[in-house]
């Protein structure tokens, strides 16, 4: 069982936030934030509150009262013509503010200049991996299997394989009905470390939906190169279901173990549904039966190892 002092005093719990975003709308072009508003088409629903600058001061404000010792910035859907510009900007932000600690930029695995973009990212010292989203189906009832840009596309797989050349990890972001396919990819590339984003996006909280989600996670967990981020539990319309969220967290940790699960906030996107404090308390509540060593792994140590973070500067 856990020892109460650590869990009572949240200020002493070291946190590595394994997934968040920053953006300056004057410094770059973010189509989803600056172009035509998509409204309810966004996976969490209305996101008007996100269409503003979100910089280091805002992140520090939102995480105040908690001991965040390091963070991982994951690409924020900046214009795909500005992929390296985002990496450059983030290194400037890190130099002036101390965060983010490391960076996970974007490159499409099928873009014509993929190798040049990868090489350019690799010149920046804090780049640790790549997030590149495959083409996915809109629902579990549809299939895009084998189409261009999917996880079966030979050119897409060739692009993924290029990460190994740089020692980059891959941030995997697909809805739960594609997790089993992602496990096939993980089996093909055992030397590429993979981080499942947003707990595998278990949007369907019915027994049938969660069963399919757990099956997909179990297939991925069979491969030791795969880790999972405990993040983004919000549901459509900005709904936060505390009881269901705790169940999802417990199930994910039971499948992957505390050695391959990482806490992450997904700020500021997660603020549509919950504050940083609510997210932390929800994860801690779900892990109440785990001891302090396990909680320390989930909240900091696993992310530091996966993303090769030196938190001494924080």
TrEMBL record:
Domain Amidohydrolase-related intervals: 16-309
GO molecular-function term, one example from the UniProt record: hydrolase activity
Any Pfam family the entry gives: Amidohydro_2
Listed name of the protein: Amidohydrolase
Family: Belongs to the metallo-dependent hydrolases superfamily.
Keyword Hydrolase set for record: yes
Keyword Transmembrane helix listed: no
Keywords carried by this UniProt record: Hydrolase
